[in-house]
Amino acid sequence: MQYTARFHACLAEVLRWEGGFSDDPYDPGGATMKGITIGVYADFVGAGAAGLRDDWARQELKTELRNIDDATVAEIYHRNYWQLVRGDELPPGIDLAVFDFGVNSGPGRAIKHLQKCVGVGIDGHIGPRTIAAARAADPAQLIPALMDSRWTFMQQIRHFWRFKNGWGRRVAGVRATALRMAGVQPAIGLVSAWDTTVYPPLPDLDAQAAQMAKAYDAEPTTMSASSIGRASEIGGGLGTAHVGVEVAAAASRARLPAGGFDVLGFWLALAQSPAFWIAMAGIATAAYVWLKERRRNRMLA
Questions:
Q1: pLDDT per residue as tens digits for the range 145-159
Q2: Which of 184, 200, 260, 289 has its CA 20 to 30 A from that of 4?
Q3: Cα dist. 31→7, 53, 64, 92, 190 in Å?
Q4: Which residues are paired to 36 by β-bridges?
């Protein structure tokens, strides 16, 4: 398939930041190769969500993704991102800024931020008005404004604390390249490093991020090894023991003189015991905590 020179230039810049294969458990996109997530690849090959749910199929998709060829990479980027932001119709430099934003955070979101910056109706769908406004705008002002808007959005992402340094370098780098493509000479600080004037490292945020990462990495991977897990197991165990006592007492009261058993009386006796319901609440809480931790362990596997 033939692509425009501008698409190839913008794709080369995107791939410069995306790198190779990664499967970071903190990354909501999951396994990623050259910026293409396993979910995007699954949709591209027709496997869809069903393929991701099946463990064997997911592993196969991950292997295929890791060995993806350049032609397929270009086709996915062109179909899923470049065409959706109508890159060939945007001015040089602005096309890269919107394209890279769309790759990172979704074409619809990138378009909305562009629309906000050029002052047209915000609907996430790029049309003649948005394109005309982008063409009429001064790239020396629009590109920095769009990158600042993107950076503000990124700071609201849940895992910003983990990826902020790489994201910051990328935003600054793409900003500099986009300005050059538009014929604007960027400031010296934007050429090859994260511009600390435009995107300050925010010491408080750095400290918070380090603290969160340390606390997360220190969390045990088994339930019995965590304080919450131990407390829940103990609470659940005590609750289970108490329930056993209450059930035995209710069963004793429900026995009939002739050797029969009053089922209704048995349940009524249990229902009248506050301790029974307290114990049941303890068991339910322990079960909830266990299931929650088990789900977390599966996500990190």
A1: 999 999 999 988 887
A2: 184
A3: 25, 14, 11, 31, 30
A4: 33
pLDDT winner (highest mean) among 160-164, 196-200, 279-283: 160-164
Q: Are 273 and 247 in contact (CB under 8 A)?
A: no
Phi and psi dihedrals of 99, rounded to 5? -60, -50
- Sorted by sequence, the CB contacts under 8 Å of residue 69 that are 6+ apart come out as none
Contacts with 102 (C-beta within 8 Å, 6 or more apart), sequence order? 81, 84, 85, 109, 110, 111
Distance from C-alpha of 45 to C-alpha of 60, rounded to nearest angstrom: 12
Amino acid at 25: P
Q: 74 with 11: CB under 8 angstroms?
A: yes
- What pLDDT, on a 0 to 100 scale, did the predictor assign at position 208? 41
What phi-psi label fits residue 124: left (phi over 0), alpha (psi between -120 and 50 degrees) or beta?
A: left
